[in-house]
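Regression test case RT-17, inverse folding.

Input:
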């Protein structure tokens, strides 16, 4: 029997049968066999088709990820030698540090790239210099820092070592800092204090923060260059672990002083081992190292952090409230400590600044204040870290926190802006669009009174902020403060001191302030803004 079949839509006849039906297989059964074979073939074809598509998609995604990774480094590497403005007047960032290939500044690179910066060299016409090391002693960059243009900014203050130097800080006799003695100069004072406090334990430190261990007084080296500090015993424990907290703090201005604290998040680092039974020879029980235990591994905190998506800070606050204590006292004292330390060191910072640099508006700096807390929730400042760690290599879940901190910092100081061009040579109408003269005016009733109405009244303290009395220098200070407030995001002002509207109107407190003239005027301006709008009070 001759069969006719349609193949790919074409009618074709053949003289040979396509197949011969065996005699022992009935017609319907043979049809089912043929249909089953066709179904299997169809399934195999469909599976192969989707497999090929999935493979192609995976190859595409892999190439895309590789291209994205290479793009970040290619773009920045290509721009690294740039000395001009580049394409479309994009702003330029100089990022410096030792062994950058290790990746410890990867989050810094990523944030600058996302906000539109190209990478340049110190000799380029840069807008921002981010240096991991103290740049003013670096002969490769210090000449460029002595002759900066008004728009350029550097992420360190000249003289910031007065705050971050461990011995300088510990021996400053400032509230919240455990008693400390520099050796060998203060040896006799140490012995006298130890005799009056025989139960005190001591920790011997140096500026490298290495080899810390609790020792009895008779085992201390009292002849070498170091300092000895009282050990904070009876620490507050979470799940039996001692911990420290790191507060990211930014100084945006000196003379007048403006200081901010990153309030949304705090770095909590828990010791690797339980504190009890206490053993002074086992430093993992009381010293926080690189292998610290993070929040998400702490039994009493991981539920709040992992499932409820609380921050490190809120997870700890939640725990403290659950045991009947008030965590707000800790944060109140932390802010007071930040303010007290920077105010105490400001005169030295001013001297270091004015001795070599003409402008006070080219600098900003973020440091990390590290505290420990005792069982009564008293805080103790242990050190202030210059260029604090911003790498999540050891703690990948902290990636988002570090990148948010960097972005919030750059927003606060005006480096991350909604205007994606260089900071250099901004036209006056663009500057006025961001902040104009009317934005900074305060105390309208006072300025329109007989006390301040005439130009001869500008020597009166309460009139110095009036529009007709403002000097060009102070106009720039106030405009910078205005823009910081607008761009602060999760940072909150620590200095000048936050206040309520009721406190802002307390003229007796204002008039009796012991602040320097510049700091008094800055505080007075914030009080005026607070009276206008409660959002300015904190």
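Golden output:
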């Amino acid at each position: 029997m001759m069969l006719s079949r349609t193949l790919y839509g074409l009618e074709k006849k053949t003289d040979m049968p396509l197949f011969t039906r065996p005699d022992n297989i009935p017609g319907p059964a043979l049809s089912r066999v043929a249909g089953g074979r066709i179904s299997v073939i169809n399934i195999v074809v469909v599976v192969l088709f989707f497999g090929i598509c999935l493979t192609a998609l995976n190859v595409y995604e892999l190439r895309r990820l590789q291209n994205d990774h290479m793009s970040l480094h290619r773009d920045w590497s290509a721009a690294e030698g740039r000395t001009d403005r580049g394409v479309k007047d994009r702003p330029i960032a100089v990022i410096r540090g030792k062994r950058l290939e290790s990746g410890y500044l990867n989050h810094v690179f990523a944030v600058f790239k996302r906000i539109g910066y190209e990478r340049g060299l110190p000799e380029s016409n840069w807008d921002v210099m981010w240096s991991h090391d103290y740049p003013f002693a670096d002969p490769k960059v210090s000449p460029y820092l002595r002759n900066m243009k008004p728009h350029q900014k550097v992420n360190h203050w000249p003289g910031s070592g007065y705050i971050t130097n461990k011995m300088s800080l510990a021996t400053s006799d400032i509230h919240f800092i455990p008693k400390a003695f520099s050796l060998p100069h203060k040896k006799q004072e140490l012995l006298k204090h130890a005799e009056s406090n025989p139960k005190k334990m001591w920790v011997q430190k140096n500026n490298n923060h290495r080899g810390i261990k609790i020792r009895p007084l008779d085992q201390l080296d009292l002849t070498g260059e170091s300092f000895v500090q009282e050990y904070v015993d009876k620490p507050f424990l979470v799940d039996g672990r001692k911990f420290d907290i790191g507060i990211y703090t930014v100084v945006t201005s000196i003379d007048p002083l403006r200081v901010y604290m990153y309030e949304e998040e705090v770095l909590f680092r828990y010791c690797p081992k339980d504190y009890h039974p206490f053993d002074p020879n086992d430093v993992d029980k009381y010293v926080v190292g690189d292998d610290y235990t993070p929040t998400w591994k702490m039994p009493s905190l991981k539920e709040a952090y992992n499932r409820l998506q609380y921050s490190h800070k809120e997870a700890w606050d939640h725990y403290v409230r659950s045991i009947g204590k008030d965590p707000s006292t800790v944060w109140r004292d932390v802010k007071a400590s930040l303010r007290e330390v920077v105010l105490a060191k400001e005169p030295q910072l001013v001297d270091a600044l004015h001795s070599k640099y003409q402008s006070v508006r080219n600098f900003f700096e973020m440091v990390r204040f590290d505290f420990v807390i005792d069982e009564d929730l008293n805080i103790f400042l242990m050190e202030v870290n210059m260029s604090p760690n911003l790498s999540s290599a050891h703690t990948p879940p902290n990636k988002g926190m570090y990148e948010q901190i960097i972005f919030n910092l750059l927003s606060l100081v005006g480096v991350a802006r909604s205007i994606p061009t260089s900071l250099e040579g901004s036209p006056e109408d663009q500057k006025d669009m961001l902040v104009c003269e009317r934005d900074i005016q305060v105390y309208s009733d006072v300025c329109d009174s007989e006390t301040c109405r005439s130009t001869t009244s500008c020597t009166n303290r309460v009139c110095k902020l009036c529009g007709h009395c403002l000097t060009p220098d102070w106009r720039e200070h106030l405009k910078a403060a205005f823009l910081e407030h607008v761009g602060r995001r999760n940072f909150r002002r620590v200095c000048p001191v936050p206040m309520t509207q009721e406190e802002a109107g307390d003229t007796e407190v204002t008039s009796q302030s012991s602040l320097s003239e510049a700091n008094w005027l800055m505080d007075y301006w914030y009080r005026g803004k607070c009276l206008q709008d409660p959002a300015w009070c904190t």
